[in-house]
Amino acid sequence: MKKYLISFCFSVLFGAAAFAQNLGVDYFLTDQLDKAKEIFERQLGENPAEANYYLGEIAYALGDTTLAKAHYEKGLAANPEYAFNKIGLARFLLKADQKAGIKALTDISKEKANKKNVEVLIAIAKVYYEVGVTPMYEKALASAEKVGKSSPLVPMLRGDVLKSKDDMGGAAGEYEQAINLNEKYLLPYIKAAQIYADINPNFAIEKLGIALEVDSTYPLTNRYLARAYYNIGHYATAIGIHEKSFNINTSGIGELTDYAAAFFFSQRYDEATNLIDKGLQKDSLNFVLNRLRMYSALETQDYGTGLGVAEKFFSLPLGKNKYIPRDYITYGDLLSFNKLVDKAKEQYAKAIEMTTEKLELYKKIGEQLNKAGYPGLAAEYYSMFIEAMDGQADTKDYYTMGNYLYQAATTIVRDTTIDSAYAATKAVEYLTKADAAFDTVTARMPDNPLGFRNRARVNASLDPETSQGLAKPHYEALLNLILTKENPAATYRRELLEIYQYLSYYYYLQFEEQGGKDEDKVQVIDYSNKILELNPNNAIAKQLIEALTAAPDNGKKKK
After folding, report:
1. What is the CATH number of domain 1-149?
2. How far, rounded to the nearest angstrom, does the alpha carbon of residue 385 sit from its chain's CA centroid?
3. Cα 337 from Cα 334, distance rounded (Å)
């Protein structure tokens, strides 16, 4: 769908009996152009003048001026007395020759049938405002106000103009004035709700509740009521409202998008995807639907499909749309899961660059990279987060970063596609950093065994032959801590087995290498017996006891 040439549609019921409910008009005036177009195309046979006028306005809003002019001309031919098609054509004259355009519009306003027709006068004012002839806009609006002092159409136009200038508060005030002038006229409730749904959803819900009391069957009320509930996170309520009014064959693409978004943020991804795909069949270039499809593919782990959608999404013309950090993060994640991590880093960099909330992005990127199988890179982003926190990072963040580094070291030495010497050097780098992270954990949480356990494991990896005993002080510190806990044999059985196995082996190596010292032999047997207390069938513990019991007290064992 092409983007609008103008930034708003004006809220005037041109050519219809005042305030008669024409849903096509109301859809047009609330920017639901696709839905409005469907309705007016069906009305061409029964009311060609009005239907052609609105089809012309829709075409003009979408940038197709040739089609717009053709519709105005058809409408004028169908009913030369219907003023609005003449006004539509005068817009082109006004842009080409301002003096001639002003004369044409002035002549229309002076026709007997139009002099006191507030709808015609406001339509003329609207054209002047669009083209930028401000003095004539103000004059035409003053004439409309004089003729229709009690008409809600004047404040409605003022509201639309203020909205086009991003004065949402002023626009809402004008819509409220329109409601006060005619409480039965539903469109200003909807126009106000369009503003309040984003800035004050609860007030939008209140206003739409009043509109429902006026007419419970009016479809636009439920559309924006669902959006207001969506905006306050009441997704189930929004879905319930959509379920009552949505029809895949007749509902507009905007309503479908709102419905799909409610499913998505309710984490009902399959239902969201199904609805999004149906929407894309109708409008394959829809920016928001392609965005939601990309998000849904990531959430459902459909990474191949998601990458294709992401590439399409970022190739769409932006128009008035804007990318948000989540777009780049999602694209980066999909690239990561498709093993295109270098390209992923480019997308992550774009997300980080465009936001001031960088800290949480570092964490999120790290978490996703770890899931994608890049723990070393994940640790880099976590490190950026911790550094940016300047000493204020939580202990759990150091713990997470340490785990990523430990996992990265384990992964790289197993990767047969990487040079073994490089892998060994990189593994030591990862492990050294992991040890520092877990050191922070133990310092901050001296009563928690996790930090001590992970320092022991990291140092065991740094000393895989156990020749230096790097893990020994950490396993001993872990053991001392665990033994202070209630019922340690039951609660920490796995950790105790790990400690005793390491220490029994360490002292066995000492016994072998240091001339068979009695104190080392005693330690081996003692820790082996502790293993058997927890696991009577442990074969290694039995072998160690058997080997040392049979050995001379001062003889060196052969390996």
Report:
1. 1.25.40.10
2. 21
3. 5
pTM over 0.70: yes
> Cα(first)–Cα(last) distance of the chain, in Å?
78
Domain boundaries defined on the chain:
1-149, 233-356, 485-559
What is the identity of the amino acid at 133?
V
| Residue 9's pLDDT band (cuts 50, 70, 90) | low
Per-residue pLDDT of 71-94, as tens digits, reads: 999 999 999 999 999 999 999 999
**Residue type at 493?**
R
What's the mean pLDDT in 481-508?
95
Cα 379 to Cα 363, 395, 407, 409, 414, distances in angstroms? 9, 15, 10, 11, 18
CA distance 425 to 10: 68
Distance (Å, whole) CA 553 – CA 493: 32
Specify the amino acid at residue 197: A
Measured from the Cβ of residue 328, the count of other Cβ atoms closer than 10 Å reads 24
Name the residue type at position 23. L
Q: What percent of the chain has pLDDT over 90?
A: 78
- Encoded tokens for 139: 């004059």
- The pair of three-digit structure tokens given for residue 84, joined into one six-digit string: 């609005």
Neighbour tally for 266: CB within 10 Å? 16
Please identify which residue in the block is written with the tokens 């409005």.
Answer: 36
Q: Which CATH superfamily is domain 233-356 in?
A: Tetratricopeptide repeat domain (1.25.40.10)
Cα dihedral sign, 190-194-199-202: positive
Integer CA distances (angstroms), 372 to 51, 211, 340, 365, 368, in order: 54, 50, 10, 10, 6
Contact 1, 286 (CB under 8 A): yes
Flag whether pLDDT at 551 surpasses 60: no
Residue by residue, DSSP assigns 171-231 as: HHHHHHHHHHH-TT--HHHHHHHHHHHHH-HHHHHHHHHHHHHH-TT-HHHHHHHHHHHHH
Q: Are 385 and 359 in contact (CB under 8 A)?
A: yes
The H or E element containing residue 498 is helix 493-513
Is the predicted pLDDT of residue 558 greater than 50, yes or no? no
Asked whether the predicted pLDDT for residue 2 surpasses 90, the reply is: no
Same CATH topology for 1-149 and 233-356: the answer is yes
How many helices and strands, by DSSP H and E, does the chain display? 30, 0
pLDDT at 257 over 60: yes
Judge whether residue 16 has pLDDT over 60: no
Highest average pLDDT, of 28-32, 158-162, 197-201, 551-555, comes from 158-162
pLDDT at position 515 is 82
Mean pLDDT, the chain, rounded, equals: 91
AA letter at 292: L
Total number of residues shown for the chain: 559
> What does the alpha-carbon distance between residue 190 and residue 160 come to, in Å, rounded to a whole number?
12
Question: Cβ(278)–Cβ(256) under 8 Å?
Answer: yes
Please, what's the largest Cα pairwise distance for the chain? 126
Burial class (CB in 10 A: 0-12, 13-18, 19+), 521: buried
